[in-house]
Design a protein that fits this description.
- The structure holds 2 protein chains of 2 kinds.
- Chain A is an all-beta fold.
- Helices cover 0% and strands 53% of the residues of chain A.
- In chain B, the strands form 2 sheets. In chain B, strands 2, 4, 5, 6, 9, 10 and 11 form a 7-stranded mixed beta sheet that branches. A 4-stranded antiparallel beta sheet of chain B has the order 1-3-8-7, with no helix packed on it.
- The chains are: A mainly beta, B mainly beta.
- At the A-B interface, strand 6, strand 10 and strand 11 of A face strand 4, strand 5 and strand 10 of B.
């Protein structure tokens, strides 16, 4: 079975500062990795995904994530956050053997002025 | 192009009542998924339709939950009778192609269900 651990439930960051949201996963088979974002009063939106190839994945809104197989991690980063990045961020995995996406518990990103 | 839509956005019902949630996927998407997030927990998979057929319903919690997808278009999720632990946000997602694992699932805004 697969599982996803998001180590921080909430992360406060000053505007224009860098941020890293941590994600570790567990799986006995190869996985695809995703980051989704939920802005206030909106649905889940795909930020980026890792399927294969380059371990550094760039997504929308200036976010990027790096797949590290040895550490089973897929941390999300942004060099300079904006107030509009206030949202909840979900790390997720999926295998090529079934249909379901396995989500982490989410990390709420609070941008401080 | 319209995204995934869900109705209602919020629902407050009493324990023992019935509630029906509706999801309209993106036009042309054969795959439709239901997920649920109970307060403070992860978003969890409930089931997957391919057109009108249930591909995987391993996440359905019990027989109080009934999902249908009439004609392979919109889907409904009925909870009957509702219990307190059914409270949460119910998300619907759809995708166009079935490349197991890699295709993007597009999510709706969710229905917030509160059972009192």
């Amino acid at each position: 079975a697969q599982s996803v651990t998001q180590l921080d439930s909430q992360v406060p960051v000053f505007e224009e500062a860098p941020v890293e949201l941590r994600c570790n996963y567990s799986s006995s088979v190869s996985v695809y990795l995703f980051w989704y974002v939920q802005y206030p009063n909106q649905g889940l939106q795909l930020l980026l995904k890792y399927l294969s190839g380059s371990t550094l994945v760039k997504g929308i809104n200036g976010f990027e994530a790096e797949f590290n197989k040895s550490q089973t991690s897929f941390h999300l980063r942004k060099p300079s956050v904006h107030i509009s990045d206030t949202a909840e961020y979900f790390c997720a995995v999926r295998t090529n053997r079934d249909d379901k996406i396995i989500f982490g518990k989410g990390t709420r990103l609070h941008i401080l002025p | 192009e319209a995204g995934v839509t869900q109705f209602p956005s919020h629902s407050v019902i009493e324990k023992g009542q019935t509630v029906t949630l509706r999801c309209d996927p993106i036009s042309g998407h054969d795959n439709l998924y239901w997920y649920r997030r109970v307060m403070g927990k992860e978003i969890k998979f409930l089931l997957h339709f391919v057109k009108e057929s249930k591909q995987d319903e391993s996440g359905m919690p019990n027989n109080r939950f009934l999902a249908e997808r009439t004609g392979g278009t919109y889907s409904t999720l009925k909870v009957q009778p509702a219990e307190l632990e059914d409270s949460g946000v119910y998300f619907c997602a759809s995708s166009q192609e079935f490349h197991r694992g890699s295709e993007t699932q597009y999510f709706g805004p969710g229905t917030r269900l509160l059972v009192l």
